[in-house]
Specification:
The protein is built from 17 helices and 13 strands. With 429 residues, the protein is of the alpha/beta class. It has a six-stranded mixed beta sheet with strand order 6-7-5-8-9-10, with helices on both faces. Strands 2-1-3-4 form a four-stranded parallel beta sheet, sandwiched between helices. Strand 3, helix 4 and strand 4 form a beta-alpha-beta unit. Helix 2 crosses helix 5, helix 5 runs antiparallel to helix 6 and helix 6 runs antiparallel to helix 9.
């Protein structure tokens, strides 16, 4: 059996067997096993791996030595030899000892879900912040597992599990890796400090922020590009874009808001990755409005919505004003999906990112959600400060001048009024 069938220069693919262990514990806490396995196959394909077959085992608990049972290890070995596999990819996270034991028993490269996702992220990060975050996540993941990656490190060539820090860094002792982690954290803290300053400036300037969130491959980057003409990479694959992108979006009333695309979510998103990307994900917490982009054509749509809702709750953003945007209406109608397509009503809107009328409807929905009630303020004519506050708190749609007062009808912006308008409360008519 060849040592490796994939190399980044030659383009040969690794050939992998996907393995998942379904226990009562991960059934309870890890989400839908079938959805997770489907995603693992998509992740492997995204990483340039040819998936040969999948193997599933139901077991009460994971085996401390091999993760799967001893008999199942022999089955995997036989299947790998028959199909010519070079890699086994596990849908759950493995310990260093389990990786070492599996490599010795199977003579395959062993990769788990977390390592696979980190590898994809390493290839997608382009900005300084993204590169720092990914390397930090990789090193945090690898540090306790160094003793379990001996054979992986000895294998030459490219392929999954070798991007990012690279062999030379992985062979350093723990002290050097801890030093590198400390250095990366210091660099990230500086990036976070700059990001925080930018956020504070935007707040002081009264800039309204709208965040795009959603399951990976739901169409967030496509929507950002179509709404704002942003030059962003768009591809039908998981994690096509990684680094957050912000662009100015003009609403129907001429008002401008900042629209930010964030990293896509996925079931069982690695803990190290969430921790490293918290600074980026906190953009959601600072947003005045969250657009939850949903792939209406996905057969696992409801499960994907639940995953996003759960992650938003973990980030502390569950209570944010939100619009659910059911995207890919065109694909849904073309495929005659078994799901019912929700109606556009309330905080739900059904669109195709490629239809101009739908984009106009979405812009109007964003405007309506950001705009509060229409209020009438009657202020003393000599109080220029209050008149200025009224103009800063929303859009003045009507003005009447009295003998010693000024009546202003204002379509109030929720965010702007919360920031500037409190002194006007006693002057509401």
């Amino acid at each position: 059996m060849s040592e490796r069938t994939f190399d980044t220069n030659t383009g040969f693919k690794e050939k992998a067997i996907l393995i998942t262990l379904v226990t009562s514990d991960n059934k309870r806490t890890g989400g839908d096993p079938e959805l997770s396995l489907q995603e693992l196959e998509q992740l492997a394909e995204t990483a340039g791996v040819e998936v040969l077959t999948t193997i599933r085992q139901n077991k009460d608990t994971a085996d401390s030595r091999w993760f799967i049972g001893k008999g199942k290890v022999q089955e995997v070995k036989a299947v790998a030899e028959e199909l010519g596999a070079t890699t086994a990819i596990f849908d759950q996270e493995l310990s260093g000892a389990q990786v070492r034991n599996l490599e010795e028993s199977l003579d395959l490269k062993i990769v788990d879900r977390t390592q696979l996702i980190l590898d994809i992220f390493a290839g997608r990060a382009k900005t300084r912040e993204g590169i720092i975050q990914v390397e930090l996540a990789q090193l945090s993941y690898l540090l306790p597992r160094l003793s379990g990656h001996g054979k992986n490190l000895s294998r030459l060539g490219g392929g999954i599990g070798t991007r990012g820090p690279g062999e030379s860094k992985l062979e350093m002792d723990r002290r050097h890796i801890r030093g590198r982690i400390a250095d990366l954290k210091a660099q990230l803290e500086e990036v976070v400090r700059h990001r925080k300053l930018h956020r504070e400036r935007r707040k002081k300037a009264g800039v309204t922020q709208v965040a795009l969130v959603g399951y990976t491959n739901a169409g967030k980057s496509t929507l950002l590009r179509e709404l704002t003409e942003a030059d962003v990479f768009v591809e039908n694959q998981l994690f096509a874009t990684l680094d957050p992108t912000s662009r100015t979006l003009e609403l129907p009333n001429g008002r401008e808001v900042i629209l930010t695309d964030t990293v896509g979510f996925i079931q069982n998103l690695p803990h190290d990755l969430v921790a490293a990307f918290r600074a980026t994900l906190e953009e959601v917490n600072e947003a005045d409005l969250v657009l939850h982009i949903i792939d209406s054509n996905s057969p696992m749509r409801d499960e994907q919505i639940a995953v996003v809702d759960r992650i938003l709750e973990e980030l502390g953003s569950a209570g944010k004003p939100q619009i659910r945007v059911y995207n890919k209406k065109d694909l849904f109608l073309a495929n005659n999906s078994i799901h019912a397509l929700p109606r556009t009503a309330g905080d739900n809107i059904v669109i195709s990112a490629y239809e101009t009328e739908d984009l106009t409807l979405l812009r109007q929905s964003i405007q309506d959600k950001l705009t509060g009630d229409t209020l009438v303020f009657v202020v003393p004519a000599d109080r220029g400060d209050l008149i200025a506050l009224a103009y800063r708190s929303g859009e003045v749609v009507e003005q009447e001048v009295g003998e010693d007062s000024l009546s202003l009808t204002v379509q109030v912006s929720r965010q702007q009024y919360a920031l500037h308008g409190q002194p006007l409360n006693e002057y509401v008519k």
